[in-house]
């Protein structure tokens, strides 16, 4: 219930004006969003962690905004260490305006990334953008076979999706939005996640296991061993600011761990989704506001 309220608030322009212009939120934002992105990437890299970098912004409504987002993403790869990844939301590139526009923009980003030895992963967003996401991903893979895509386990067709994505880099997550017909009970989402994991680990692609859930992290590592994958055959992914000790623990054990690092001023919807995921995060948020 609370999750649905917070996700609804994440789309409210009025709430966004109120919250994002308040100086009181700065401390909370800083926990999840990189202030100085170069510094954060340097620090994570020195600790042996990999990064995927997200320039915050989504749901653009005109071409000029989409072009601004693309310009930032064209600059980004050259600033990243080799082996880094960039995470891209197609609605920031103009998917709501036209699929062709988003494809052209994403293709330009893939070309810039390839020059810098950086990969690109397409984030999964609201349910009505998922067909466009997979159609753009399939088109991009013709020239950029290593472009990755996100599958949300809360969607009942996620299993089919994983089967169809044989050979691809696939980031599996639970799903951060709402969708008609989506699994909502944690047990159902977890079951779907594990079924998808089995397909991905047994397949020929590169699984990216995006969860902070200790049980799912353990299951992923076990399935990888059972399927004969070594530490380079898959990776764990976690969000900047979430379970940093666990990121280091896994990496210290020899696992590949990639941290999703968002940066930029358009952090409102991202932060609201993080709060919706975890009541503890909300308590932290409210405490930070009240203690000022
Ligand atoms: P969940 O939030 O259900 O938590 C399960 C358990 O994990 C908790 O009970 C606790 O034990 C532990 N845990 C979680 N947070 C913790 C914390 N702060 N401190 C301590 N323990 C904690 N979604 C989407 O729809 N599209 C996308 O493209 C992406 N991309 C993406 C990339 C990456 C790298 C990550 C990690 C996640 C995403 N997501 C996403 C978000 C994802 O769908 C999901 O909403 C969040 O990861 C939260 O789900 P978890 O699997 O982490 O577990």
Automatic annotation (TrEMBL):
GO terms for biological process: L-proline catabolic process to L-glutamate. Binds 1 FAD per subunit. FAD binds at residues 152, 174-176, 211-212. It comes from the Bacteria. It is an enzyme of class 1 (oxidoreductase). The keyword Oxidoreductase applies. It holds the Pfam family Pro_dh. Gene3D superfamilies: 3.20.20.220. This is proline dehydrogenase.
